């Protein structure tokens, strides 16, 4: 049996995650760290917020660690130059000393921020966090020893300590990455659904009591999920924000009001009712916000869209449907709609697939037909990327996934082209490519093309016209063809499988 290398690291980390005996010391340490903050009162809270990165909008710990990582790596290189007896080696050594000291200062700051974040973790993450802290403290300890050794003129031992510290730091960084990418510590846990895009009644006005947070839900049809929202009436005004705390998903509707903010019951993040910004950590990231209005005794809410979000609001649709130039009116009258042009091209691609699949493996024409298919697929993706997708982006949320699928189709096409058309692997790849294209084309037809109708008939005919022009140009222009053929030949020949 061969063991995949990641399963070895997984097993090691699994052992740390399961180490319940770490919980006792962890509890003691967390309490010890919390005490001075509690003694210090408000200034203590300020320091803690700064260490989390609450006012900054992101955790600061991952940025502070770049200081020791960078300087200690530099020191390792400078040490090596000195050890190899480079000219002016002593100068390199002195520079290494400064780099190590700078890194040690950065490491202390990073540790303080990390400790603040770690206090608010639980269970397996808390155990991994403790291991991460112990490993990195060892690295810092080794560097401090190195500094002392260098001061006493024992440079060789100092360099060894630094090299060891670098390796230990590397292991610590691995654990840190595990905490973020696998354990999802420090990542935004709020619901970022774009729904509701238009005002939607959620609760009768009479039911919302001053100062009592109240949970309501809205439905997100794309996610197939209920999105919890918390309503708060404060000094007569009504506010709404996402009910899932961005820190770790705590229920804000079970929280309470303090100094004009809504407090999370889990770790005490306090959010500004007006802006959703955290006023107190550990959260570093603002809550999703909603506009509120009253209609016929009902509270209605509408999601405030975040900048850059591909949300589709009635305003977006109206604007996208508005044609740029009224003088183009005549050209709009001719031709087919964009979705019709693309659907027809999808059908062409499907026919090509079926023909290649039906051919005998050793049919000499199989390879040529495969190249024709490759060429048409390229053209299809090109005209969509250039014309259709940018135009439908404001009215359809499918566009970003569609772009991603094009990339995957291109990867799969490249892999298929490299295989000899008579091989069994070719048939396997061709089938996978066929299914990928089918999935992609079908989801365009059943969702994106439907949503594209919001652009209006006239705009769609204009786009259809532009698509047909570009399709024609791609097929007939000598330059375009030569370029495409060269690309397909390169894809097929370079790294060819035999
Ligand atoms: S979940 Fe941690 S503060 Fe809300
Ligand atoms: Fe597409
Ligand atoms: Fe398509």
Keywords:
Rieske Iron-sulfur Protein; binds fe (ii) ion; alpha+beta; single chain; four-stranded antiparallel β-sheet; 10 strands; binds FE2/S2 (inorganic) cluster; 498 residues; three-stranded antiparallel β-sheet; 16 helices
In short:
The chain contains 16 helices and 10 strands. With 498 residues, it is α+β, with helices and mostly antiparallel strands. It is flat.
Biggest pleated-sheet summary? 4 strands, antiparallel
What's the average pLDDT?
91
Q: How much strand content do the residues show? A: 5-15%
What small molecules does the structure contain? Answer: FE2/S2 (inorganic) cluster, fe (ii) ion
Q: Rg to the nearest angstrom?
A: 30 Å
Counting structural domains, the number is: 3
* Distance separating the two termini: 28 Å
Q: Could you give the count of β-strands?
A: 10
Unreliable spans are none
Structural class: alpha+beta
Give the fraction of residues assigned to helices: 55-70%
**Helix run count:** 16
N-to-C series of helices and strands: HHHHHHHHEEEEEEEEEEHHHHHHHH
Q: Which sequence of strands runs across the widest sheet?
A: 5-6-7-8
Query: Which of globular, elongated, flat, extended, rod-shaped describes the shape?
Result: flat
Protein architecture, described:
It is a single chain. With 498 residues, this protein is of the alpha+beta class. It has 3 domains: 5-182; 200-303, Rieske Iron-sulfur Protein (3-layer Sandwich); 317-493. Helix content is 60%, strand content 10%. The protein has helices at residues 5-17, 23-40, 42-52, 61-64, 66-83, 89-119, 123-151, 155-182, 314-321, 329-333, 338-358, 365-392, 399-417, 424-452, 457-476, 478-493; strands spanning 200-204, 214-220, 225-234, 237-242, 256-258, 261-263, 270-272, 278-280, 290-295, 298-303. The strands form 3 sheets. Strands 5-6-7-8 form a 4-stranded antiparallel β-sheet. It is flat. The two termini are 28 Å apart. One fe (ii) ion is lined by residues 342, 346, 380, 384, 441, 444.
